[in-house]
Design a protein that fits this description.
- This protein has 126 residues and is mostly beta strands.
- The chain has one domain: Gamma-glutamyl cyclotransferase-like (Hypothetical upf0131 protein ytfp), CATH 3.10.490.
- 8% of the residues lie in helices and 40% in strands.
- The chain contains one helix and eight strands; from the N terminus they run E-E-E-E-E-H-E-E-E.
- The chain has a five-stranded antiparallel sheet. Strands 4-3-8 form a three-stranded antiparallel sheet, with no helix packed on it.
- Strand 6 and strand 7 form a beta hairpin.
- It is globular.
- It starts with a strand and ends in a 15-residue tail after the last strand.
- The mean pLDDT is 94.
């Protein structure tokens, strides 16, 4: 049996956005937020760093195969650009689980203190 992985996405991989097609064979587990606080920035694309404990990051969790995880690693240029790390996330029903999250090594762009991308005012534009 092939191993499955949980992946937390906060940017262009979310439903309705430009890279969501990478997750077309993944199983949507639900809306979620990180348990810990991180910093979310926007520099054309969103990126999360451990540079500051600003807010929980809002996103979605998917169950993916090894093959999909490999494709996501290529997309996110792991480990050269983003670094994939396990974090605790809390799903809408209050349950918690570990999921992979792609971190940027350094802050870049505008800080989004609410931890949501796209910003609610930009949601229709993304």
């Amino acid at each position: 049996m092939h191993r499955k992985h949980a992946v937390f996405v906060y940017g262009t991989l979310k439903r309705g956005l430009s890279n969501h097609f990478f997750l077309r064979e993944a199983r949507f587990l639900g809306q979620a937020q990180t348990v810990e606080r991180y910093a979310l920035y926007e520099d054309e694309i969103p990126l999360v760093t451990r540079s500051q404990a600003v807010s929980p990051i809002q996103g979605e969790v998917y169950e993916v195969s090894e093959k999909i995880l490999h494709h996501l690693d290529v997309l996110e240029q792991h480990p050269e650009f983003y670094r994939r790390e396990l974090v605790q996330v809390q799903l809408e029903d209050g349950s918690r689980r570990e999921a992979w999250l792609y971190f940027s090594p350094e802050p870049k762009g505008a800080l989004l203190p609410e931890g949501v991308w796209p910003r609610p005012s930009q949601a229709g534009e993304a």
